[in-house]
Amino acid sequence: MSHLLAPIFEPGFFDSTTVQTAVLVGAVVALVAAAVGVFTVMRGQSFAGEALGDIGTTGGSGAFLIGVGPLWGFVAISVVAAAAMEMIGVQRARGRDLATGIVLSAALGLAALFLNLDATYHDTTGATVTILFGSMFAIASSTVPVMVLLSLIVLAIVAVLYRPLLLSSVSGELAAARGIPVRLVGALYLLALALSVALAAMTIGTILSTALLIGPAATALRLTKRPGAAMLVAGLIGVGATWLGIVLAYDSYDWPPIHRGWPVSFFVVTIIFGLYLLAGVPELWRTRRRRPAAHLSGETLTAGGR
Amino acid sequence: MFSGFMVNAWTEATIVAVVAGVVGFFTVLRGSAFVAHAVPNGSFAGAAGASLLGINTIVGLGVFSLFGALGIGVLGRRGRHDVVTALALVFMLGLGALFVSMSVENEPEIYSLLFGEVLGISNTEIGPTAALAVVCVAAVVVLYRPLMLSSVLAEAGEARGVSSFRMELCFLVVVALATTMTVPVVGTLLIFSLMIGAPAAARSFTDRPAHAIVLSVAIALVTVWAAIAISYTTNRPVGFFVATISALSYTLGRGWAAWRRSRTTQLAGDTAEAAGAGT
Q1: What was the ipTM of the complex prediction?
Q2: Closest residue, chain B, to A115 (C-alpha)
Q3: Could you say which of A110, A286, B100, B160 is the most buried, measured as most Cβ atoms within 10 Å of its Cβ?
């Protein structure tokens, strides 16, 4: 058996504690991101997810500056930023994008300053790249319990909010008519989003964290219209992509041109993007065959996805 | 502050501010904040790839921002627009991560790509930037009416024979061009503040499109000039000051709009909303 697998798994893959940590944390984070991501895609808040991820850069570099672990920086800043977005006004779609953008750009400005200060005072190298693009093989094993705990909190929020969140995501008016506190549900959901983005930032980096959040969920929603099933499929895709990425990155230490290993994040993101494109093929094929109905089926798909 | 290499910085930043102000107006009008974030950000991969291959950064930026923008436009027609934008962006950034890991580029180089290095602009870079700026502004002038129509009333535009898909593609190409020329100045992450902050602030002060464009350019100019001056004296990154001043001007604009609204309408509900929006 081990002979058969030798070409895939380089020697030492299963013995390395670094790899074990990466495999465990990667899977947990992928599951959480998938659960939250389905709602993010349905609510059309990809930009908010992306922005919260990017804003994590500020937290990560700030944490570096004062000498605490990056996870705390990610968590603190994304929760604060989510609250700011909520207060500026996330209700109206167009104003929401603008509010997101303003918060994002202000935070990135701070990130620029923090990274500059990091370089000045700590004389370190690699902070920018580590924070932005992640380093799954550099997760300290001491942060693992905290990450698992945060993941459980996010999953609990999603589980408790499941029904009201689903209804208010599909139709805010309907949810309000049924007496659901739409604003509160939205705010709690934003908190879950902020936490899961912070977790994803630990594994594949701040500016790539959206990949885990949006990619598997969007792919799953192309395959099935039922939210529960979509979460399951998204979780599978997320975990699969993360694990495959880890294996490939481990193998890539022998690859040209530099024999230094290709980044895990690159593999994960590429696999996720490829799967999303692939999942669009069946639909493309259907609309090609029924040309006159093409517009119509596109409409129903969007309506179903909302 | 006004000698030698600094002259280049002032010239370049002025060109960038004009273009960001003009293009940014349409970005805000169309609600395309996400695309305006994604295209420049994704083009980082192009810059990293160019430095890996040893070719001009502008070429890498141009190729990636153009392909990124067109990819988002074409794929977005079929899937959810925001989802496609996010995924195209992270894919490009993933490539960027790969290029960065392969290149022997040191940290400051990457930092300056992401956050800009306006103070390190050479004489030779001003020519291409100016040329691209002229192309950008000319494209907006030529497309002004149809672009305006399809941004405000897409249906009416369609009825008049203005395809909103084609307008979207044109707009994306203009954003890509603006990206290519602005990235070396304010970096991939912060162009966005110029393209969003200034026009959004301008729109709070006036409802007339032409006035808003002029005002947006003016605010963008003041922003970059002030940012460079402060950055020069404090020796801190220019991007930080650009972003902070942009956010401040937006807050001022929102505050002004809220104040005017609360004066003209005495409705209690409106006042409450405006006060909430102003914070």
Answers
A1: 0.80
A2: B111
A3: B100
**What kind and span of H or E run contains B137?**
helix B123-152
Residues of chain B with Cβ-Cβ distance to A214 below 8 Å are 83, 86-87, 90
- Residues A217-241 have pLDDT tens digits of 999 998 888 888 999 999 999 999 9
CATH 1.10.3470.10 at B5-278, yes or no: yes
Look at residue B140 and give its three-state secondary structure: helix
Yes or no, beta carbons of A273 and B95 under 8 Å apart: no
Residue in B closest to A295 by C-alpha: B78
Closest chain B CA to residue A109: B240
Q: What is the pTM of this model?
A: 0.81
* A263 secondary structure, DSSP code: -
Chain B contacts in chain A segment 43-72 (CB below 8 A): 44-47, 49-51, 54
> Residue B187 and residue A112: Cβ atoms within 8 Å?
yes
A304 Cβ partners below 8 Å, 6+ apart? A225
**Residue ranges per domain, chain B?**
5-278
SS3 B43: coil
Q: Is A101 on the interface with B (CB under 8 A)?
A: yes
Is residue A6 packed enough to be buried (19+ CB in 10 Å), middle (13-18) or exposed (0-12)? exposed
Which tokens go with A212? 């885990």
Q: What tens digit of pLDDT does each residue of B179-202 get?
A: 888 777 667 666 788 888 889 899
Residue A46 to residue A96: CA distance in whole angstroms: 12
Closest residue by Cα to residue B216 from B34, B17, B39: B17
